[in-house]
Structures are given as structure tokens and as C-alpha cells.
Specification:
There is one protein chain. By secondary structure, this protein is α+β, with helices and mostly antiparallel strands. The strands form six sheets. Strands 1, 2, 8, 9, 10, 11, 19 and 20 form an eight-stranded mixed beta sheet that branches. The longest helix is centred in the C-terminal third of the chain and has 23 residues.
């Protein structure tokens, strides 16, 4: 029997996609080429916005997935941009998670895989997707010697995505010019917190303690920059050894910190590629299958998980038959909203590339200038914090719409002990928030819209919430519609949900 959606790729982005689809009532299966779950730490930085969206998933024991991960990770209240000595301060961010969570990637994968296991969602390991065919009505794959059919296929199968290639989606970008190193190791010397070193003669290195007595070390030797693409390929083919890592650390930092017992040694480059489109018919792309770039600040993992969050509720609405065209291929479609975000991701990582890998006195001067911008705690620091944390990412606002439309809603407190907005979000319904206690809003509720009362938001920099009378919140936590008079709510709900019945306009609104 065919399933609704097949997800190719069982990394964190693929598992997140499957988990959110399942939570929205969609039958889903995951196919992963590796024979078992990963035990490598890889993407070890979880951003505030990612923790917010992970709050949508119920761990089944009274906690949310975000609660599970926060209990296991290390909270860091500051973040870096391009490993500059001046840090971005997250203390005052308007979120329940004003910190970066340092956590090995395998723990994020495990939490999501455990969610799927308890929900009896199949995750097939050792099942590489090798063939893809789509028709007007379905997609057929071949994996591990068997054929499987679904209504839709999501490619979460990484930078070398077979799904993307089968869909004939172009993947263009810039060739690499440098080869860096990344390793998870143990240190004989105690390092209490993240340390960043930059030397215009030797290169740069970062030493970042993770959980469980493990330390992430990454950087680049100055001699490994300004290379041709062929030189990069040859250099990447050479295995990184502990002896080489020790030598580079001593050259850049003056010590190797007693590095020993590596669990992961790898090389990375600044290859940049971006899919020309995120959807072809019934095939969609998420995460590294859609965008690859210099791994700077953990942005790839986090943007990928947020891709999944944007995609899942829209695809679920399409499967269930209530998605208007605007959610499928229109102005609020997955491709239209997420491709610009990935373009911003590429720009951010390229800017950090320029700041980190210009090993000259001019490069040193540029870094000091940016440090000054951040230390002033003004608009530059605020904008960088908003982008790096993910909290400032919004979607296009139509002409004439309320200023809040497209923005991420804050974690508003709900009335009558109903918790907060983040814990009320579900991937199969909108929230209609009333701020004035209007009982007539109840008439706008439906299977796709939950009506609740919220307290006004008086903290944070955005004062627009102080005068809003009602707001329609998308399943991913962004504002679909807001009004200070109460006008237009029924029409907005109809435009976004194509509900089972036409909502009755609330009296007096």
C-alpha cells in the first residue's frame, strides 16, 4: 500500500520532516543509506529558533523534544560571527531559549528517531534510494532492492542528493578555494569555554567544548587558502591525522591543548551551491540537498531543520486536501519562502568566509572593524544576532498587510493556564489569538483553526503587538494575519485554510 510521503535521508532534517508530517496525520516512511544511526557529533550547534520549532513535537512523557535536548546539552549565552573575538550576546533575545545549545548532532537525531519509533513510523536503515520516477499522481522509488510508491517524495539526502539529480534540479554555485579541518577530540588541558584564535601568518582555529568531555576543534591553515578547485579536491582526499591537527593548533594557538582520542577527523571546504528550485511536481528538497556552503556557525543544520518546519505543514495541508494554491506554488509556497532564506544563508557564510580566511594585515583590520561594530551593541549586532539565532527570519509581507504579517510570533502567554504559544502550535492547524476576550471569535474556529485568548506582548522591541486585537498564527509560528480592528478575520482564514465550512464572521469585529 502506498504511503503519503517518503523521505529520502535519515539525518536530522529528514527525521524532522517525517516527525512533523506524522504529527500532522500524514503516513510517512524514511529511507536512509547508512546501515545504522550516526554517532558523530557533526552539526553540534542548535540555535534558539530551532529549539522553538522543536517545541512543537511532544516527546510523549510530558516533555517536548526541545526539553529533551536542552537537558542534554550545554547552554552558551554568546555566539560568534566569523570567529571574531567580539561575541554576539543572546541574553536579551525574546525567546524561551536565549542561548546556543552545544549538543552532538547524534543526540538530536536520536531524539527525533525515538519520537518516530514511539509513533511506529518506519525508518529503514541501509536502504539507499537508487531510482526515482514520478508521474502526475505518484512517485516511485527503489531502495534496498524493493520498490515503494508514495504521493510525494522529500529529498533530505544531502549535498550529493540522488533525489535532486533524479528530478533534474540544477545545483549551481561557487567552486571551493580553501580546505579547513574539523575534529571532535579530547584535551589534556582544561578549556572552560569557547576560544577563538586568528593569526594572519598561520591561520585560525576554534576550540569549543561540547557535552560529554568532548571538544570540537575547527579552523584552517593559512597555506590551505587561495587554492584552485583541483587543489582543494586533492587536499580533501588526504585523510586528516591527529599529528597534523596537533601541528596546526601549535602554529595557530601556541599549544595543541594536549589533543588526543579523536572520535571524528575531517576536512571541509567553502564550496557553495544552491538548488535552482525546491520543488518539481511531487518531489521536494530540504536541507543540504537544497543548499551547501561553508560550515560557519552551525547554520546549515539549523536552516535545514527550519526548512523542514516550513515544508511539513504545507505538504500535510496539500495531502489532506485543504491547502489553497498559495501554499502549494503561490506566494506562500515552500519554494517561494525558503529559497530566499537559503540565499541569505549563502551570503552570511560567504561574508564569514571573507572575514575568516583573508590572512593579511588588511584581513586583520577588517576583523577589528567588525568587532567594533558588534561591541557597540547597536543595529549591526542586533541584526547579526537576529540572523544567526534564526529569530529574525521572516517571510514576505503582502502590500498593505499589517506590519506583523510574515514575522515570527513571540512565545505569547495564553489565557486560563493554557501555556504558551510555542507549546500550543501544531503542524495541522492555525491558532487564532484574541487579545480582548471577544467570545465571538469562537465562531471562527474549525478543524484547521484553534481559537484561544492570549495576553498582550509588552516585552521585546516590537511594540506592534500592544495594539493587535486578533492574530492568525501559522502552524510554523509565523503571523498569517493581524488586525487592530478585528476586520477581515473570516476572509483571512478562508484564504489560508480553505476550511471544511465557510467561517462565519464574528459579530462586532
Amino acid at each position: 500500500m502506498a504511503v503519503d510521503v517518503i523521505v529520502a535521508g535519515g539525518g536530522p532534517v529528514g527525521l524532522m520532516t517525517a516527525a512533523l508530517l506524522d504529527a500532522a496525520g500524514i503516513s510517512v516512511e524514511v529511507y536512509e543509506r547508512n546501515t545504522e544511526p550516526s554517532r558523530q557529533s557533526r552539526g553540534s550547534t542548535v540555535h534558539p529558533r530551532t529549539l522553538e520549532v522543536l517545541t512543537m513535537l511532544d516527546a510523549g512523557d510530558g516533555r517536548r523534544i526541545s526539553d529533551v535536548l536542552v537537558a542534554q546539552g550545554k547552554r552558551v549565552r554568546q555566539a560568534h560571527f566569523a570567529t571574531l573575538r567580539a561575541k554576539l550576546d543572546y541574553h536579551d533575545l525574546d525567546t524561551p531559549f536565549p542561548f546556543v545549545l552545544m549538543l552532538p548532532q547524534w543526540r538530536t537525531e536520536h531524539a527525533l528517531a525515538e519520537y518516530l519509533r514511539t509513533r511506529a513510523v518506519p525508518v529503514h536503515y541501509g536502504a539507499d534510494v537508487t531510482d526515482v520516477e514520478q508521474s502526475a499522481d505518484e512517485v516511485r522509488i527503489r531502495a534496498a532492492g524493493m520498490s515503494r510508491t508514495a504521493r510525494y517524495l522529500v529529498g533530505a539526502d544531502g549535498a550529493h542528493s540522488m533525489v535532486r539529480k533524479a528530478a533534474s534540479i540544477g545545483f549551481t554555485g561557487d567552486l571551493p578555494t580553501m580546505v579547513g579541518f574539523v575534529a571532535d577530540v579530547r584535551l589534556a588541558e582544561h578549556v572552560p569555554g569557547a576560544q577563538y584564535f586568528w593569526n594572519h601568518e598561520a591561520g585560525h582555529a576554534s576550540v569549543v567544548p561540547l557535552a560529554e568531555d568532548m571538544t570540537r576543534v575547527f579552523g584552517v591553515e593559512a597555506a590551505d587558502t587561495g587554492l584552485t578547485a583541483d587543489q582543494v579536491r586533492r587536499r580533501q582526499a588526504e585523510p586528516l591525522t591527529l599529528a597534523e591537527l596537533s601541528r596546526v593548533l601549535r602554529a595557530v594557538c601556541g599549544t595543541d591543548f594536549g589533543v588526543h582520542s579523536p572520535s571524528w577527523l575531517s576536512r571541509v571546504s567553502n564550496t557553495t551551491r544552491h538548488a535552482e528550485r525546491y520543488r518539481t511536481g511531487r518531489i521536494l528538497l530540504v536541507g543540504d540537498a537544497a543548499h551547501v556552503h561553508l560550515p560557519a556557525g552551525g547554520q546549515g543544520l539549523n536552516v535545514g531543520l527550519q526548512d523542514a518546519t516550513n515544508l511539513a505543514w504545507k505538504l500535510a495541508a496539500e495531502v489532506h486536501g485543504w491547502a489553497p494554491e498559495r501554499l502549494i506554488t503561490g506566494e506562500a509556497g515552500y519554494d517561494r519562502e525558503r529559497r530566499p532564506v537559503a540565499e541569505g544563508l549563502v551570503a552570511s557564510t560567504q561574508a564569514q568566509d571573507a572575514l575568516m580566511h583573508n590572512f593579511s594585515r588588511a584581513g586583520a583590520a577588517l576583523r577589528e572593524m567588525f568587532c567594533g561594530f558588534i561591541e557597540r551593541r547597536g543595529e549591526v549586532a542586533a541584526e547579526l544576532s537576529a540572523w544567526m539565532s534564526g529569530l529574525g527570519v521572516g517571510y514576505p509581507r503582502p502590500d498593505g498587510a499589517h506590519p506583523l504579517v510574515g514575522a515570527k510570533a513571540p512565545d505569547l502567554a495564553l489565557a486560563e493556564g493554557n501555556g504558551t504559544l510555542l507549546r500550543a502550535l501544531r503542524p495541522d492547524r492555525f491558532l487564532l489569538l484574541g487579545f480582548t476576550g471577544d467570545a465571538d471569535l469562537a465562531g471562527l474556529g474549525s478543524a484547521r483553526v484553534q481559537v484561544t485568548t492570549a495576553h498582550r506582548h509588552t516585552s521585546g522591541r516590537d511594540r506592534a503587538w500592544e495594539t493587535v486585537r486578533a492574530a492568525l498564527i501559522r502552524p510554523d509560528g509565523h503571523v498569517a494575519y493581524a488586525t487592530e480592528s478585528g476586520d477581515g478575520l473570516a476572509e483571512a482564514i478562508a484564504e489560508w485554510t480553505r476550511p471544511d465550512h465557510q467561517p462565519t464572521p464574528a459579530r462586532g469585529l
